[in-house]
Amino acid sequence: MNLEEFKQKLSNIFSTFKKDKEVLSVDELKIKYLGRKSEFVSMLRLIGTLPISERKEAGKIANEFKNKIEKLLEKLESENNQPKNYNLDVTLPGKKVPVGHMHITTQTIREVADIFKKLGFYQVRYPEVEWDYYAFTALNFPEDHPARDEWETFFIDSKPINSKYGARILTPHTSSGQVREMEKRKPPIRMINISRVYRRQMSVRHLMNFYQFEGLVIDKNINIGHLKGILDFFVKKFIGPDTKYRIRPYHFPFTEPSFEVDVWLGKENKMAKDGWLEIGGAGMVHPNVLRAGGIDPNEYSGYAFGWGIERNKLSIGGINLEDIRILYQTDIRFLEQF
Ligand code: DAH
Fold first, then answer.
1. Distance, CA 61 to ligand 1 centroid (Å)?
2. Cα 105 to ligand 1 centroid, rounded to whole Å
3. Domain total of the chain
């Protein structure tokens, strides 16, 4: 062999390399072209058989060849190039991309809003950071009345900072939207206020931060019959047409008379007490509350109701949760079931 033949041979190897790089993987190319048993390595051994004057030049050419191959391999590797006709099986099923869905709370909010919109209610949302005035004073809670404690309120200000509105709080119930709505709109009022509320309570049945929806209807000649009709319609739509429920006398400062509504879920239900789930409060709007909203109680009357979203939804339909707090622990294994 002479230098010319040596050169020619390397250039032939390079031509086959160019074809192979379309079909072989980078690892296969490395072994075939630079590996211990490659043609290139056996050619390096041949350099010693060339005439002495040609050996230096042959070494240089061999080095250039090696560098060229290495550069191309690096490039292929960085492009993570699979050879173009590499095991492509068009009959394999595609990869399924997991698709999420709305949180069960959001779904329930929409479900509730839809039921009431069918009855002619419009939806509003009032502030979560609220004045004491709208949450308590305007709702006929006497100053320092123990009822204020029942709502277990988070206070933002430690003392009243406004002579009319008092301290700022995180609203403990959506009832704070009642007088806000009356200040904004003249009767007839038919609002449904769905919002987050906050309470200093945490247990298997209580979240510190949950949703309520508040209904308020004010017009001429509104009576308890209207309230009962709405409750009946809602319970049967939301829970089921055969739902057994009861309306029980209770006390709230802002309604007179006041009621609580219980539905029968059976003794095995963990969220219910002795089989009855208390779904929320309701009543005829107290004249003092109408007055606080600038509405004449001799001319108008109204009813209101305020119920929770999460506990009510999770108690029905056989879900039977042990601990309601799992709802907001972002555990996908739980959430994907709804
Ligand atoms: N705000 C009350 C609560 O959070 C529920 C309630 C009771 C709302 C009676 C009302 C009502 O509108 O009339 O426990």
1. 91
2. 20
3. 2
Q: Provide the residue range defining the domain that includes 47.
A: 3-81
Is the pTM of the predicted complex or chain greater than 0.85? no
Is-contact 175 141, C-beta < 8 A?
no
Note the pLDDT tens digit of each residue in 46-63.
898 999 999 999 999 999
Distance CA 59, CA 66 (A): 11
**156-179 b/e with 16+ CB inside 10 Å = b?**
eeeeeeeeeebbbbbbbbbbbbbb
Ligand 1, atom nearest to 303 Cα: 13
111 in helix, strand or coil? Answer: helix
161 and 308: one domain? yes
Maximum CA pair distance of the chain? Answer: 123
C-beta of 304 in contact with ligand 1 (< 6 A):
yes
Instruction: Read off the pLDDT band of 144 (50, 70, 90).
Output: confident
Same domain, 229 and 329: yes
Burial class (CB in 10 A: 0-12, 13-18, 19+), 239: buried
pLDDT digits 0-9 by tens, 8-32: 999 999 999 999 988 898 889 999 9
Q: Is 306 in the pocket of ligand 1 (CB under 6 A)?
A: yes
State whether the Cα torsion 80-84-87-91 is positive or negative: positive
